[in-house]
């Protein structure tokens, strides 16, 4: 069962900063990736490794959906990690929702599902296959990799996304900005030789941007 508006407000209330609470309420109400992730792993109960977790919103959401047996979120932004971990402790989820300041270079003691949401295109092209293989290394036998990314194509949505990413870089929201927008074939070439079955579907939501959801597993998803 997906969280209702009351539960979304409860999740937001765990965060101390008013700006975080406002952002999280809006994000949970409008971004389709949270419900899509919950649906992708439904019925396959195990831990989840969230690479580039930010405040750990996905972990709070999936726990509210009661589809997880543990959550480890990684992010290089220590201030976000501290705020997210404090919220987890406020919700008394400290034993089942952990955030750690880290990049995706060292092995983690988690085998289960893996999430990579809005991370891949902020890496240079040559580093993207390594990150995808790192994700595969942390998949359980029947775990699901959930990836949201922008795909490069000739659509008007892609052009709109490029302009949006330029704005994000200009205002300093994401230092460095987008590095490489992958094509679908590039992602398949990194995953399919590892014995991973890959499925793509658009996840535009109510935006003009060229966002896609990938679900991948060693078993059919």
The CATH superfamily is identified as: Vaccinia Virus protein VP39
Report the order of strands and helices.
Answer: HHHEHEHEEHEHHEE
What is the β-strand count?
A: 7
Task: Look at the helices and sheets and give the structural class.
Answer: alpha/beta
Task: State the shape.
Answer: globular
Domain count: the total is 1
CATH topology-level name: Rossmann fold
Average pLDDT confidence is 91
The span between the termini is 19 Å
Keywords: Methyltransferase, Transferase
InterPro entries: SAM-dependent_MTases_sf
Protein name: Methyltransferase domain-containing protein
Pfam families: Methyltransf_23
Task: Note down, in words, how this protein is organized.
The chain is an alpha/beta fold and 221 residues long. It has a single domain, classed as Rossmann fold (3-Layer(aba) Sandwich). It is 39% helix and 19% strand. The chain contains 8 helices and 7 strands. The protein has a 7-stranded mixed sheet, with helices on both faces. The two termini are 19 Å apart. The mean pLDDT is 91.
List keywords for this structure.
19% strand; 8 helices; 221 residues; seven-stranded mixed sheet; Rossmann fold; alpha/beta; Methyltransferase domain-containing protein
Provide a brief overview of the structure.
By secondary structure, this protein is an alpha/beta fold.
């Amino acid at each position: 069962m997906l969280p209702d508006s009351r539960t979304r407000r409860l999740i937001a209330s765990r965060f101390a900063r008013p700006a975080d609470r406002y952002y999280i309420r809006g994000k949970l109400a409008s971004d389709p990736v949270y419900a899509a992730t919950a649906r992708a792993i439904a019925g396959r109960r195990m831990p989840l490794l969230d690479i580039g977790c930010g405040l750990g919103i996905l972990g709070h959401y999936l726990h509210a959906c009661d589809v997880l047996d543990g959550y480890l979120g990684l992010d290089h932004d220590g201030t976000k990690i501290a705020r997210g971990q404090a919220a987890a402790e406020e919700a008394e989820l400290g034993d089942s929702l952990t955030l750690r300041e880290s990049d995706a270079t060292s092995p983690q003691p988690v085998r289960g599902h893996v999430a990579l949401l809005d991370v891949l295109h902020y890496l240079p092209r040559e580093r993207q296959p390594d990150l995808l293989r790192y994700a595969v290394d942390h998949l359980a036998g029947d775990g699901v990799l959930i990836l949201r990314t922008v795909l490069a194509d000739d659509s008007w949505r892609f052009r709109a996304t490029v302009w949006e990413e330029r704005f994000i870089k200009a205002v300093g929201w994401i230092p460095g900005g987008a590095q490489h927008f992958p094509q679908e074939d590039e992602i398949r070439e990194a995953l399919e030789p590892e014995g991973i079955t890959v499925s793509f579907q658009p996840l535009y939501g109510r935006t003009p941007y060229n966002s896609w959801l990938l679900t991948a597993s060693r078993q059919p998803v």
